[in-house]
Amino acid sequence: MINKQNLWFLTLFSLILVLSVYYITMPNDLLVNNVESKVQIKSKDKAKTEVKQTNSLVAMRVSLEEERQEEMVSLQEKLTNEKTTTEEKNNAYEQLKYLNQLQGEEEKIEKQIKEQYKLDSFVKIDDKNIEVVVIKDKHDNSIANNIMRLVQTNYDDKMYITVTFKKS
Question: How far apart are CA 103 and CA 124, in angstroms?
């Protein structure tokens, strides 16, 4: 049975978790707005290609965020449900931590790719599979190999990394 103190703790924890996820995702939204406003200043032809580029990455990010948000909501419901066992609550809490960790790792890898190769990218981590989508007109095997090596340096275990090039 859950007492009032534990219920308040779980409620506040879930609120903090939701706010932290919102805070983590907020800078990306502000960045996209800045990119779109800068694009409007440029010539019309360039503006169209750059907006498409950001929109395809933003669409992938939004899709992944919605998927993860649904999973987080169901896990938070498990945490606050009185009928859920302690073991199930612990598993739900660990899964929430894992999802937050994944999101941080994905953002870190995207940042590394941006800094090292000056390429916009989208990263999705699913267990030992890492999917990287890079915005580049031409497929380049050497860049793909270098990105795979860069991503693997973040992990001790062997990861299965795929790099896909998407035209802008």
Answer: 9
Q: How many helices (H) and strands (E) does the chain have?
A: 4, 3
Q: pLDDT tens across 120-162, in order?
A: 999 999 989 999 999 888 888 999 999 999 999 999 999 999 9
Give the number of other CB atoms < 10 A from CB of residue 37. 9
| β-bridge partners, 133 | 122, 164
Alpha helices in 81-140 (DSSP H): 86-117
Q: Which helix (H) or strand (E) holds 125?
A: strand 121-126
**So what's the pLDDT on residue 81?**
86
Helix (H) or strand (E) holding 35, with range, is helix 4-41
- Global confidence as pTM: 0.64
Residue 166's pLDDT is 87
Which value, in Å, is the radius of gyration of the alpha carbons in the chain? 19
On whether the CB atoms of residues 36 and 54 are closer than 8 A, the answer is: yes
Of 51, 56, 60, nearest to 33 by C-alpha is: 51
